[in-house]
Amino acid sequence: MDTASSQPGDLVLPLASASSGSLLPGVAEADLVELWHTAAAEGVGLELEEFAAILAAVATKLNYGLHPGINAVSAQKIEFLRGLHLPELALAHACALGREPAWTRFLALYQTPLTQTAIAITRSATLGHELADSLYAELYGLRERDGTRQSPLSSYTGRGSLLGWLRTTLAQRHIDHHRRTHRESPLEDLDAPATEPPAAPVPAGLKPLNEAVARTLAALPAEDRFLLASYFLDRQTLAQIASLLRVHEATISRRLKRLTADLRKQLIRNLQSGGLSRRAAEEALGTDPRDLDINLRSLLQPSQTATFSDQYKST
Asked: Averaged over 202-222, what is the pLDDT?
């Protein structure tokens, strides 16, 4: 699952340098050349060695799609790499490296759909164009770190479609901008809030549940936290979320139902690992959520945005 942080400088996917040995350990050179041709990497300005470094970085980051600690054999490695969106992976990373042929192709393919998405998100042609333009500037890598320009495109791993990744990144940038400008509103425009009474101490019996909820939500992938926050905290309708992600409303409904069921199972496991019996864990889940002393918004707010519209279309 691909992600893009709100901080471009934190996103650079480190490229593994080619050594004097195999360009991609465990992958035959003939297979690597086949992947390079499949990706049309040469057409966007990537040499074979550069493309191999990109694949190596993605493979290291995702462990060839396997659970951490499991070593992939050669057949698993090539199967994983062939399953990536190779042309889009090459295009994204060539753009991140500043290759002009790649940017020409990128704008031809994505400028119009991204602008249309931005207008749909902001419900304004003017604001939509401004949002899209700000994303292009960020993707182009106008920010630098240690003399090297940083582009969120270098974090794209090819697991989902590049267009889905871009749309979700665009949506998150809009949310970030809204929250930032809301915080910057002049104080005189805001009503003074009433003084709140001191918070009551958390009952001892709720402490294990607080900890279990915090652990469970914090371990969720960014895309799941984004979906839960959109639906339960931001009160967006299924139709609004579906429109934003360009998927069917029923897809979002199924995903939310499956996600909440999985959350309940994981919560029970976390409670049991904390020393509760199965029955006590299930009873704890009946607690009124308003009694929990946790910041759900902080836990559900993703620090990065993932590409999941492609995944939802297949669910």
From this structure: 69
